[in-house]
Write a structure and sequence with these properties.
alpha+beta; 5-stranded mixed beta sheet; 121 residues
């Protein structure tokens, strides 16, 4: 798909009681990039970075209850588990604790990260 913009991944540290919890979100805007593993790979790398450099111990996502693709991505592929549902907002909250095998997988992935400086100034 070349160098085109595919979408974005974000982390929000908005749990005022626990600064090691990060809320993740992903958006694959470009239709040609969907269902190709782009979101999965981007999230895995982002999460690995967050564990290694930002000391994240838990990831949280809030997904619209009708968004089957995102529920499968986070639930089935990444191992997040449902912790609550909001009938008012029609969304599902899933979490992934960074412990045991999950921690090891993310730490192993973090070792593959190649960090660089992208500021040309």
């Amino acid at each position: 798909h070349g160098m085109a913009f595919a979408g974005d991944v974000n982390l929000f540290f908005n749990d005022h009681d626990d600064h090691t919890v990060a809320e993740a979100e992903v958006m694959v805007a470009e239709a040609a990039s969907r269902r190709r593993g782009v979101a999965l790979e981007a999230l895995q790398l982002f999460m690995a970075y967050a564990v290694k450099f930002l000391r994240v111990t838990k990831f949280r996502v809030k997904i619209g209850e009708n968004n089957a693709a995102s529920l499968a991505l986070f639930g089935t592929k990444l191992g997040f588990v449902e912790v609550s549902r909001s009938t008012v907002f029609k969304e599902v909250t899933l979490e992934l604790a960074v412990e045991g095998a999950v921690r090891q997988q993310l730490q192993d992935r973090a070792e593959q990260l190649q960090l660089g400086v992208y500021d040309s100034a």
